Amino acid sequence: MDLDWSPADLAFRDEVRGFLDEHLTPELRRAGRLATSVYPDHEASMRWQRILHERGWAAPAWPVQYGGCPWSLTQHYIFDRESTLAGAPGLSPMGIRMVAHAIIAFGTEEQKNYFLPGILTGEVFFCQGYSEPEAGSDLASLTMAAVSDGDDLIVTGSKIWTTHATEANWIFALVRTARLERKQQGITFVLIDMNTPGIQVRPLVMTSGEQVQNQVFFDAVRVPKANVLGRIDDGWTVAKYLLNFERGGGAVGPTLQVMAESLAAQATSQPGPNGGALLDDPAFAAKLADIRIRADVLEILEYRTLSAISRGKDPGPAASALKILGTELSQQLTELTLEAAGPRGRAYQPHAAMPGGPVADFVPPADGYLSGHEWQAVAPLRYFNDRAGSIYAGSNEIQRNIIAKAGLGL
């Protein structure tokens, strides 16, 4: 594996940097810098998607005929890496990076023609209806029922931890259409208009105070069978395919490197326990150095995975390893950042951040007063939100089981 970019790759990198320098406004960079989770401020994210769409870069991983880019895998990685380094706000992954790939692979021509252009522009905004109160990591135990009635399915039940359900106008959901021998059978993948009568969204207040997650209730919601993706009772096949896109594909290493560099700069102005700067404290410096080394190692592992894919090889359990390393390193980094924030990191100051959703029961000070710096106010919000990283997209315990089975033959 050659770790040096080719001349063509370097030219592409410079093109991406020029585009980012020109179009990333201070407001958009602020939204990226002050995001409190993987979900940035919704309006900023949609503004950035419109800019990318105008350039033809909103969905580079899609097939070219549907609006994607004819890039190599290396160019995809360079684009993600440079966007991260420049501080661009992320895009909501539910549509562009997740369900769109399932629509392309399993959808009818009518479904592709309707949904894909709208997803690109942001006019069609999806949320994900997978988890239920009694079906989380064991997703195949889901019970939300869909009963056949002529050309429709009548859907009744609820979904939980549904990100941006209040902003979305569509939801892709797994529903139970039959009780068969194996619980993975009898599941159907369906696209549901969120404006259909019988749908109620109830926001959930997270430990950070944000209302990004929701519980969605379906009371005899009528859904056309034309909105089924794939075949009825075979939705598990679609769901497994989609998970390949949910668990990988981004440049996580550079994200962690940027966070670690910022923390190092912040720690130079924070007082340490011995009177000097916090960064000069051996205990703190050792923990930060360990994280930075591991972030560099993670980036090398991403390069290795990229190299394998570019040679037509299945990365296998490497995707699970990257998910474990990335989420657990991020948790360690947000924990260390909270430690560096000191007493001011204990103050609840969400008005200094740009969260991915509204904050419940918080009235910001009329004069905008902030105790400390912006990063100190953001630190506790990121800390609380990041606790979910080792659970979503398949818990890290499940990822370790995949590695044990597929990688070690246990």
UniProtKB/TrEMBL annotation:
All residue ranges annotated as the Acyl-CoA dehydrogenase/oxidase N-terminal domain in the record: 9-123
Keyword terms, alphabetized: FAD, Flavoprotein, Oxidoreductase
Domain Acyl-CoA dehydrogenase/oxidase C-terminal: 233-406
SUPFAM superfamilies cross-referenced by the UniProt entry: Acyl-CoA dehydrogenase C-terminal domain-like, Acyl-CoA dehydrogenase NM domain-like
Domain Acyl-CoA oxidase/dehydrogenase middle: 127-219
Superkingdom of the source species: Bacteria
Pfam entry (one): Acyl-CoA_dh_N
InterPro entries the UniProt entry points to: Acyl-CoA_Oxase/DH_mid-dom, Acyl-CoA_Oxase/DH_mid-dom_sf, AcylCo_DH-like_C, AcylCo_DH/oxidase_C, AcylCoA_DH/ox_N, AcylCoA_DH/ox_N_sf, AcylCoA_DH/oxidase_NM_dom_sf, Mycobact_Acyl-CoA_DH
Cofactor(s), names only, from the UniProt record: FAD
Family stated for the protein in its record: Belongs to the acyl-CoA dehydrogenase family.
Listed name of the protein: Acyl-CoA dehydrogenase family protein
